[in-house]
């Protein structure tokens, strides 16, 4: 459990403290996720709701791995991506999806820690493995839908830039651009809100433990 706590600290720094990920934090995050996935295969780790959330958090870095490997292939073999203009956008959307999944899962872990600290008995029926799996599944579905919308918007923009579009396509492009812009704004403000909530939760937990 100490290793899992260190992993959570690393992820909190990577996604909720740093304003943007860099090569060092991304590399350390990937190593931490790989190590965590190996640890969670051990029979010594009991199946708890927090463990389920951490497992989903570690698996989210698969998106980063796909993006990193793709960029390495493009750079190493000098692959031309002019014919597939959507490839860079897809890689960026995968990184965005990873960041959003990770922030939401980390916030769920923080909320569960708050419940364990202040309402251990009352919240026991909420802190179940079934609810944790359901929460992880809902988060993945929502972020996947978000990523799909961003990708459709990027594809429509690329196609409209390369060829003339019909009036129906113009309306679809306008709708997708508006929806994507609103979703990006919502994600931005939600990210700020999650940072504030997480700081408040751990502030309360820290002083509660200090008083004890």
UniProtKB/TrEMBL annotation:
The keyword Translocase belongs to this UniProt entry's keyword annotation: no
GO biological process: phospholipase C-activating G protein-coupled receptor signaling pathway; positive regulation of Rho protein signal transduction
Ranges for domain G-protein coupled receptors family 1 profile: 32-212
Regions that span the bilayer: 12-40, 97-119, 131-152, 181-203
Superkingdom of origin organism: Eukaryota
GO cellular component: plasma membrane
Cellular localisation: Membrane
Name of the featured protein: CXCR3 protein
Gene label: Cxcr3
């Amino acid at each position: 459990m100490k290793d899992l706590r260190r992993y959570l600290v690393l992820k909190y720094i990577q996604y909720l403290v740093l304003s943007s990920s860099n090569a060092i934090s991304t590399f350390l995050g990937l190593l931490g996720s790989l190590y965590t996935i190996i640890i969670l295969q051990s029979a010594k780790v009991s199946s708890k709701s927090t463990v389920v959330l951490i497992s989903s958090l570690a698996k989210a870095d698969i998106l980063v791995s796909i993006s990193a490997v793709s960029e390495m292939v493009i750079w190493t073999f000098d692959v031309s991506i002019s014919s597939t203009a959507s490839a860079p956008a897809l890689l960026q959307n995968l990184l965005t999806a990873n960041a959003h999944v990770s922030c939401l899962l980390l916030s769920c872990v923080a909320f569960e820690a708050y419940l364990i600290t202040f309402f251990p008995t009352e919240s026991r029926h909420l802190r179940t493995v079934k609810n944790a799996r359901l929460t992880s599944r809902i988060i993945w579905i929502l972020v996947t839908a978000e990523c799909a919308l961003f990708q459709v918007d990027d594809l429509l923009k690329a196609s409209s830039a390369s060829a003339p579009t019909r009036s129906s396509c113009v309306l679809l492009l306008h709708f997708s651009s508006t929806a994507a812009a609103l979703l990006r704004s919502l994600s931005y403000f939600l990210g700020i809100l999650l940072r504030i909530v997480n700081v408040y939760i751990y502030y309360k937990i820290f002083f509660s433990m200090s008083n004890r």
